[in-house]
Structure formats: structure tokens, C-alpha cells
Amino acid sequence: MLLNELLCISKVPPGTKHVDMDLATLPPTTAMAILLYNRWAIRTIVQSSFPVKQAKPGPPQLSVMNQMQQEKELTENILKVLKEQAADSILVLEAALKLNKDLYVHTMRTLDLLAMEPGMVNGETESSAAGLKIKIQEVHCQVCYDLGAAYFQQGSTNSAAYENGREKFFRTKELMAEIGSLSLHCTIDEKRLAGYCQACDVLVPSSDSTSQQLTPYSQVHICLRSGNYQEVIQIFIEDNLTFSLPVQFRQSVLRELFQKAQQGNEALDEICFKICACNTVRDILEGRTISVQFNQLLFLRPNKEKIDFLLEVCSRSVNLEKTSDSLKGNMAAFLRNVCLGLEDLQYVFMISSHELFITLLKDEERKLLVDQMRKRSPRINLCINPVTSFYDIPASASVNIGQLEHQLILSVDPWRIRQILIELHGMTSERQFWTVSNKWEVPSVYSGVILGIKDNLTRDLVYILMAKGLHSSAVKDFPHAKQLFAACLELVTEFSPKLRQVMLNEMLLLDIHTHEAGVGQSGERPPSDLISRVRGYLEMRLPDIPLRQVVAEECVAFMLNWRENEYLTLQVPAFLLQNNPYVKLGQLLAATCKELPGPKESRRTAKDLWEVVVQICSVSNQHKRGNDGRVSLIKQRESTLGIMYRSELLSFIKKLREPLVLTIILSLFVKLHNVREDIVNDITAEHISIWPSSIPNLQSVDFEAVAITVKELVRYTLSINPNNHSWLIIQADIYFATNQYSAALHYYLQAGAVCSDFFNKAVPPDVYTDQVIKRMIKCCSLLNCHTQVAILCQFLREIDYKTAFKSLQEQNSHDAMDSYYDYIWDVTILEYLTYLHHKRGETDKRQIAIKAIGQTELNASNPEEVLQLAAQRRKKKFLQAMAKLYF
């Protein structure tokens, strides 16, 4: 807003693109205003590309969230406009580099004069003496820096932009050298500029003969890209003598390699130790403390190779003739402490007998070290004796908060998580570490209880363990989820019975998921204790326990999937049926499965299930008066008339895998879909006859939602078993009802193929009923495949000659016509074809029809078995040909 005001007051014509204006011909204050606006635009775009760590907010407040959302949308809109204009802004700044006259910027005095007498002052503000004078060299310097940053940002998608960025950054350095200390208004972050220049040297090595020698940055970058890690180690060892690479850069290389190692590249473990050892020696020489990372890598798993390499690095990092006494003292203290930290005397002897050790430590210091090692008490070797109790793990030495938070995010070991939190709380008591990652999500029904824990460390630990456990379960990393939940259960058992029950519930859900994703997929029944725990959860009557809806859903679905119908129908307590809608639904489904083989009169629960689902799919009608005074009817899609919402019902059904249960619920929705008055083409389904044929209040049912649900359910059931012919017929009927005839034929053919070994056996008549064949005939007719229509007419129990003859009369057929004649076994149809071709004068096609009639196996005098065999063979070949066409 401020810069737009400056453009207005500086006489920039509104509606004119800055790129179309010649800066050299504009008044100095006008040109300066345009430059300021476009430099700000470029800087804003570059700044927006930097990653920003999002602070996790506290308990949500609606007004604050709305305000934050509005601010975010406003910022995004501004950025969108600036990015669209970015190319123009760059052209404007490039044009500014051609200016050779000093510019002026408005001051408070010139602005006041403009406000008082704009007409009279205009001349003065445009003169060379008005406002604050800015030397053109300073303008060029700042513009070059901004352009360099813009080109560098574009380099991620256009590598050629790095070359432009390099040119602008090095020109900025030249101009800063020219201006020197005389600069009044040019302020550029020299450290950031140096970083940009180094990055450009790596990304775009100069072709100048003077810079043929690669910098250490470039060498490291090239080695990392090519996987030549040994060369990186050599560069780091050499750098321990020159100190040319910044410590932060060396640490970033180590972090990158550690991340690759943690992603499963075990070959990098050794490289990580060697790089860490190089960095540690550099830290020692510069008087910094040893990192916890190095101590863990060396002392937890010491071996001869690690000690040999460490001694090599130490030897090559110290020039005994030139190194100062303070650096030698640092190295000597480091070697002494390494000896004190090692348990195995063999490794201690390797160090104490090394030439560097003997040179750096005096005789008295070596004797003192030996005495200390003799007197020290034996310590527990952690790598041999792992910690067994959750509360007995000592916290390690502190490192900086950023590194620890990074480790906290990556770790899935509950014992390590506790260690890190103890260290973090030892450093600061003001932070809430459960907010470190916005990926840590705990259901709101739990978070209120957890965040109410008074002890900060315990609160953070419980929250993070649960969040990580839930995430591990969601990504099917069940072993880690079990560890995290077990640790959390042990922790909360001490102080919160409520949270203890919560964790028991979550561990039950985890065990269900583990079984279903593992041996359950092969059909192995769950252990009896798991079934007992599920029953225990369903019957639980503990007050004030936060419960997640998904646990109840999964438990009921689990019982249905493993056919525990006896329990659901006879043993479920009455209070459960009243309070838990999923148990009610499960009981009705189980009872309907049990009653299915019985006579139709005994299927009372089927009627009850029908009424429950109809109520779920019903909508509440609301009357609303419009602006014209008329009353209109509004349908409330997700009504609360039923025991649950339709979306909740659909979510529950998608947890079922038992074929009979899925078939029943699918046939119910199909019947509900068919009840609709304006339905033209019914959808067929197995067991559809068990449902009522009418609904008293037809207007209350949301049939659009029912149709969507049927499609969703068929898609889901076919994902469970794509070879169920009953479900495939339903999918075909849906496509037929929605005029998608090619897709309908695909599924009709697929239904026949799966139950006939790809048509090598006869398709059962209860699959290819007359209704299915008639729909296939209609599909072919509407696709203009008239010969296929005639052939399919033979499949009916009574051949439909009228339809067959009518289709053969069509001359505009899109199928292979006469090449299909070999698939016709009915002589009457073949004789009609012969007559038709003779009448049309189509001699060649008439000969093909005559040849087909002349086959001995079609002779009417043949026994019935021969004729049926001939028909069956032609059916098989025709359906296989159709399948190849539509699959």
C-alpha cells in the first residue's frame, strides 16, 4: 500500500505497465519510485520461497483462526499477482542498470510541499535538486543484488538462470569495492552475498583460466553427487589444517549422509562415522565441545577400524612443527579423554602406543592417565546390557536445541524420545515440545486430557508417544506402533486410569489392524484372546473415558468379518444396542445372515435392517420462505433421523470383508435404488427378494445419495474380490442404467468369464439370465454391432428371431459382420442371412453364409447332444472374441 501511494504521488501514470516506460526520460523521483516498487516485488517473491518453520498454535480459537486464514489468503493473493508480474519486474530492473544519472527519492519536505501546493511544487520535485540524492552506483549495486537473488531462485527450475545470478552477484561485489566506505544508502548483507557467490561457484564453475582450480565447496559438491565419499573424507582431513570450510557446511554434509543412512542405506554407516570423526577433530582444534553424535558412534560400538581411522585423522590434522601449543594441548586432552571413555584395554593400548600420543603427552601425564584408568570403577557396557526399565535410562549430555528437536522428530524409539525430552527440558522450561512438528496429531477427544497433565515433561512425552504411535499404525509400521503404545501405557498407568484405558483401547485397535494386515489376509482366524478383548471393549461401561468412534467401528466390523454372528445376535447386552449404533447395525446384519437360508416369513430382522437403512438415507424437509414470498422445500442431505449419518454408514461398510455381509448390504441398497418411482432399468442383485417392495414415505428418501452409495459400494466390493460374478453383474447394470453401454458389456462379459474359466466351460444360467442376455443385446444394438445382436439372440431360452432378423437387415453395422457367421449355430438365422445377401446381390457374403450352413455338425438330423455341443463350442468362441474386443 505504501509503495503504491509512492507511485501515485510520484506521477506514475495509473494503468501503464512499468516495463513499457523509459526510465531515462522520466523525472528522477518517478524513476526511483518505480525501482523501489519492483525491487520490493522481487525481494518479496524470493523471500516467500524460503522455508518457514510453522509454530504450532495452542488450543484453537475460532476468531483467531478466521483472522489467520484471512491474512493467509490476502498474502497468497498478493504473492500470486507479484509472481505473474515477476518477468516484467526483472526487465524493469535490468533497464535500470543502463541509467547513468543520479536519482532522487522523496523526503518529508517534498511530500509536504506536494500536499500543500501540488500544482506549483511539481516542477520542483522533478528538478535535479529536489528530494534526497541517491548516487547511481549505489542504485546499480542494490539492483544487481536483487536481480542476482531473483535469478538464483529461478535456478531450481532453469539451470541457465544460475549463470545470470552469478554475473549479477559478482558485479555487486565489484560495485561495493568501488563505492567503499563512501556509501551512504547502500546496505547489503555481505555474509549472505558471500554465500550466494560460493553457491554460484559450485553450481556454475567459472570458465576463466584463473579459476580452473575448483574450490573445496565445488569439490565436495561434485563428490557427493557422484557418490565418491572417500574423496569427501580426504577433503575434510586436509581442511583440518587450513580451516577453509565453515563448520556449518561440514555439519550439513554429515546431516545429509545421516539422513540417507537412516533411509536404509547401511553402506553409509561407516562413511558417517568417518565424516563425524573429521568434524570432531576440527571442533577439538578450534576449542569446541565434542558432539553427542560422535560419542555414540565411537563408544557404543568401538572397533579396531574406528580407532585406526581416528588416529589417522588426528595425525594428519596436526602439523607438529607449525601448530601452536594451544592446538597441541587441545589434541592431547582429546586423546586422553578418548582413552578414559573406552572400556576395552586393547583399544586404549592402540592409542597410548601411537606416535602422536607419545609426542603430545609428557611422561607425567601418561603415568597419571594410567593411574586414573586403574582406579576407575567398572562401568556397565550399554551395548551388551540394554536398559530394561523405562524409568532407568540416564539422559545424555546436552547439545543444541535445534539438533535435539531434529532427532526428536526422526526417532521412533520410546526410550530415545524420553532421553531427548529430558535434555530439552533441562535446557529450557519455556517451550512446549509437543508442538515441534505439525505432523504430530492426536484426536481431539484425547488431546484435551493429555494437555491437562500438569507436569510439562510428562505431558510432552505422553502426547509425542501417542502421536508417533498413531502415525506408525496409519502407515502400517505396526512393530514400532506397538513399542510406542506400550511405553505410553507404562507411563500413564502410574497416574491416570482414564489415559490407561485409552491406551488399552488403542492397543486393541492396533492388534486388530496387525492381524487383519498380516495372517488375517490368508484367512487365519484371530486368536481367542483377541476376540475376548473385542467383546470386552464392546461391553465396557466405564464413565468419562474418551472414546474414538473408529474403535467401535473396527470392533464390530472385526466380529462380522470373522463370522461371530452368534455373539452379535444372542449375547450382546441390551444397553449396548441402545447406546452404540455400530453394535445395533452389526446385530441386524449378523441376524440377517443367520436367517437367510430360512423361509421368507421368518426374516423379520431383514425388515428391521431395511427400516434402519431407509431412515439413515432419509432427509429432513425444511420450509424456507424466499424473497418472492413463496415457500420452497429444502432437503437436508445429512440428516440425524437415523442411528448414524450416511457417510458414517459408508465408512463402516468399507471396513467389512465378509462376502455374505457385503452381498446383503449391497442388495439392500440396490433394492432401495429400484424402489424409486421413475426408475427405468432395475439393477439386479443376489438375495434382493428378502427386502420389502415399497416405502410408505417415498418422498423422504434421498435417492440421489442412494445412487451414489450403490456406486461406492460396488467399487469397494470389487476391490475386495474382483471375481465375484454377482457384484460384476451389479456394476454392469449400473453402467447399463446410465447409458454407458461399452462399459456395461465389459462387466457382463467379465461376470461370465470369472465363473466359466474364461468361457471354456458353460456360463451358469443363473449368471447369464434372459434379462442379462437381453441387456447385452440392447448394448450391442445401441453400439451398432448388429451381427453381435443376432448371435446373442440365440443365447435366450427361446430364440428371438424377430430381433435377430431386424438387426441383420441393418446395413450400417460397426462390427465384423460376415466374419461372425461361424459363431451362428441356428440354421434358421443362417438361411435368413443367405436370403438377405442374395436379395442384396452380395455374392461373397452369401457364399460365407452357405458355407456356415453346410457344416455337418449343424445338420438337423444330428442327435441332440451333437447339436448342443456345436452350439456350446460356438458360444465359447464368440464370447472369447467379445471379451478380447471389450476387455
TrEMBL record:
SUPFAM superfamilies: TPR-like
Any Pfam family the entry gives: TPR_INTS8
Domain INTS8 TPR repeats: 398-886
Localization of this protein: Chromosome; Nucleus
Superkingdom as given in the UniProt entry: Eukaryota
Coiled-coil ranges from the UniProt annotation: none
GO biological process: snRNA 3'-end processing
Keywords: Chromosome, Nucleus
Any one GO cellular component localisation term in the record: integrator complex
Family: Belongs to the Integrator subunit 8 family.
Name recorded for this polypeptide: Integrator complex subunit 8 isoform X3
Species per Swiss-Prot/TrEMBL record: Heterocephalus glaber (Naked mole rat)
